[in-house]
Every structure is written in C-alpha cells, then in structure tokens.
C-alpha cells in the first residue's frame, strides 16, 4: 500500500480547489483553510501587481494562494531541499510562472535581500525564536505600503509595529502588521475591516 501524502487545498483564485502534496517534515504544518480565508479577506482577495515573500514556505499554502490571486511575484523560501523540491514540483503542476522557489535559510535571505515586497508572510515553526528574529529583518524589505502577516503559538512582542488586524484560531495567533509611522498611501493594500 502506498504511503498517504499530505495535501493542502488552494481555496480561491485561478488554482481554486487544487490539491497540492507536500512531504513529511518536522515542524511543517500548513496554514488552515479558515485562517487563509480570513487573511485573504483582510488583504482584499486580489493581489494583482503585488510582490509577495513567503519566508518559511513549508507546504506553500500561503505563497500558492497569493499566486492564485494574481500576485505579480511570489518568492518562496525553504531551507529543506526535500520540501523545496516539492514546492518546485507544485509550481510546475500549477504552471505558476509568478512563483520562484529559493532553497535558502529564511533569515539568511532576509538579511541579504535587496528586493522589496508588498506582502511578507512569516509562518515559521512555532517552537522556535524565528518569528522574533525575522520580524525586524522583514521591516527592511517592505515597500512603503507593505504589510507583514505572521502566525505564532503565542502573540509576539510587536514594539515598533502597528497591528492592522489580529485573530486567533484554536492555538494559533495570527495578525497583519506594518511598521509604525507608515501612513497608508494611494498604492496601499486595502485591509478589510
């Protein structure tokens, strides 16, 4: 009998209802459908023209969801070669031209990248310090109107960040934030109320 593989379902957009397999890997847990639905309601459903960074890609649920909703570019970072290979296979399966998979440690990328992004997804393994380390680095990669989405087991320290939206599902805290002092301009993502 063949081993049952994990699968994540894209909930909306061009790839709606597509099931994408992902391998077993320690700490890998896709963002639940209900949380993704809430997140993309906050972001306004359509990401046309936006550049997104999925810093701890794992299953790719957030990055592929963004690509499905017409993001211009989605950079997916994944340290595990096995998981990165799975993301590349799913990119080919979907013919997702906007997606770029980079096999790299997310913190290393965040420290060295020069490109800026409109949306940065930070969903690292819960039992780590990676979110606290990644948040300040992500601030430097945001466009003037950019936002960061995060997930954590416990609400993180957010000094210097404006909380735009927050919620909790089960044991998962999640929120949408931007650096304090950045006024939303004409090109800002509309964050739904």
Question: Would you give an account of this structure?
Answer:
It contains five helices and nine strands, in the order E-E-H-E-H-E-H-E-H-E-H-E-E-E. The protein has 193 residues and is α/β, with parallel strands linked by helices. It has a single domain (27-179), classed as Vaccinia Virus protein VP39 (Rossmann fold, 3-Layer(aba) Sandwich), CATH 3.40.50.150. The strands form two sheets. The protein has a seven-stranded mixed sheet with strand order 5-4-3-6-7-9-8, with helices on both faces. A two-stranded antiparallel sheet has the order 1-2. Helix 2 links the parallel strand 3 and strand 4 (73-77). Helix 4 (106-112) runs parallel beside helix 5 (130-139). The radius of gyration is 15 Å and the shape is globular. The mean pLDDT is 87.
């Amino acid at each position: 009998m063949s081993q049952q593989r994990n699968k994540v379902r894209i909930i909306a957009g061009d790839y709606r209802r597509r099931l994408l397999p992902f391998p077993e890997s320690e700490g890998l847990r896709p963002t639940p459908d209900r949380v993704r639905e809430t997140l993309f309601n906050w972001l306004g459903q359509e990401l046309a023209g936006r550049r997104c960074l999925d810093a701890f890609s794992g299953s790719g649920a957030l990055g592929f969801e963004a690509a499905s909703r017409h993001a211009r570019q989605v950079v997916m970072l994944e340290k595990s070669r096995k998981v990165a290979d799975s993301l590349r296979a799913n990119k080919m399966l979907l013919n997702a031209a906007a997606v770029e998979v980079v096999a790299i440690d997310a913190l290393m990328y965040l420290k060295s990248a020069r490109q800026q992004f409109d949306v940065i997804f930070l969903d690292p393994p819960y039992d780590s310090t990676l979110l606290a380390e990644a948040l300040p680095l992500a601030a430097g990669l945001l466009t003037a109107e950019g936002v960061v989405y995060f997930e954590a087991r416990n609400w993180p320290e957010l000094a210097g960040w404006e909380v735009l939206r927050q919620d909790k599902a089960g044991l998962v805290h999640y929120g949408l934030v931007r650096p304090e002092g950045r006024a939303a301009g004409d090109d800002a993502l509309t964050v739904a109320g």
